[in-house]
Write a structure and sequence with these properties.
Elements: E1 7-20, E2 25-40, E3 45-49, H1 56-63, H2 67-70, E4 75-84, E5 87-90, H3 96-100, E6 106-109, H4 123-134, H5 139-152, H6 169-181, E7 187-191, H7 199-216, E8 219-224, H8 227-233, E9 236-241, E10 244-250, H9 251-256, H10 261-268, E11 320-323, E12 326-328, H11 331-336
Parallel strand pairs: 3-8, 3-9, 6-7, 7-8
Antiparallel strand pairs: 1-2, 1-4, 4-5, 9-10, 10-12, 11-12
Helix pairs in contact: 4-5, 4-6, 5-6, 6-7
């Protein structure tokens, strides 16, 4: 594996302005992503985990640079650097036309397989659309590749003539995966790809993604709210809370030895396989997640944190390396260790 990161996210901030008043001026802003930094190495899977509303999906959309297309008023700063031919390209600095050149390198699998596929297009055309946009393949070549991709995700070439409504949720997500693979991407961002599926189907889709990663030498960013799912598929894990990263490290370190109190609470919520066995130290967080419109001063987690001190409200916690390749944003944990 290369020692050079394929993707570097540095101090990424994403804010959605809120307009009000007679003249519709900016009255507030939602800080969806607030100073996120991490690196992704070639061939590895980085899991992004956290509660709903913590900024995971916004982070994914910022990385593929589509936020401006869906929300023109969004304010994005920082750097998202993609390695290409030994150089790094800051994707955030590219306009729509220049970004088009790099879109084949980064593709996305969306959360809801029922709304991410065009109901008026047959499956073959859905998968072929990226080929029409980004390749010079002949008509026969495109048809051949569509059939190959369907086979890779466990569907048949004959099913290319069907419409999305004729498939189950798990099959639709397989179609979404085939579409993402069409341009031979280097990076795939999976935005909660199994959250809308039954538990039995979730395992099939996750195992499929792991097999495809090995076969196509893919680099994945896997977004989910279930820490056990993320640990199963990931090499590293990014734990987010209220738009910020609170812990980052190897998957096994964060799953078996979480240091930040929020990561510990997420882990304690993972169901045990034995229904007769009770978890000894179940952590139940008090209160609700604060609104991104009115974040607490200092550490955003302090209003729900069981070990918070008055000093936690004075300044943003510094992201420090508590152990080798294990970073935590909590000075209280640092003092106790």
């Amino acid at each position: 594996m290369s020692k050079t990161p394929i993707l570097k996210v540095k101090d990424l901030k994403v804010s959605f302005p809120i307009f009000g008043g007679v003249f519709q001026h900016k009255v507030a802003e939602v800080k969806a992503v607030d100073g996120v930094s991490f690196e992704v190495m070639p061939g590895e899977t980085v899991g992004v985990v956290g509660e709903s509303g913590c900024g995971k999906s916004t982070l994914g959309k910022a990385i593929i640079n589509v936020l401006k297309l869906t929300a023109p008023d969004v304010e994005v700063s920082g750097e998202i650097s993609l390695e290409k031919n030994g150089n790094y390209i800051n994707l955030l600095s590219l306009n729509k036309k220049k970004m088009q050149v790099h879109r084949p390198d980064i593709q996305m699998i969306f959360q809801d397989p029922f709304s991410s596929l065009n109901p008026r297009m047959i499956v073959g055309d859905i998968i072929q659309e990226p080929l029409d946009l980004h390749t010079d393949l002949s008509k026969a070549g495109k048809k051949e590749k569509v059939a190959m991709l369907l086979d890779k995700v466990g569907l048949s070439a004959e099913q290319a003539m069907r419409y999305p409504h004729e498939f189950s949720g798990g099959q639709r997500q397989r179609i979404g995966i085939a579409r993402a693979l069409a341009t031979n991407p280097r990076i795939i961002i999976a935005d909660e790809p199994v959250s809308a599926l039954d538990v039995s189907i979730q395992a099939q889709v996750i195992n499929l993604m792991m097999d495809l990663r090995e076969e196509f030498n893919l680099t994945n960013i896997f977004i989910a709210h279930d820490l056990s799912v993320v640990e199963h598929i990931s090499d590293k894990i990014v734990v987010m809370y209220l738009g910020s990263v609170v812990e980052y490290g190897k998957a096994e370190d964060i799953y078996y030895h979480p240091r930040h109190p929020y990561s510990q609470a997420l882990l304690s919520a993972v169901p045990l396989p034995n229904p007769d066995k009770k978890r000894k130290n179940r952590i139940v967080l008090e209160g609700d997640v604060p609104s991104p419109l009115a974040k607490p001063s200092g550490c955003g987690f302090r209003t729900r944190c069981p070990i918070a001190k008055p000093s936690c409200g004075e300044a943003l916690p510094t992201f420090e390396e508590h152990a080798k390749d294990h970073w935590v944003a909590c000075p209280v944990v640092k003092e106790a260790s």
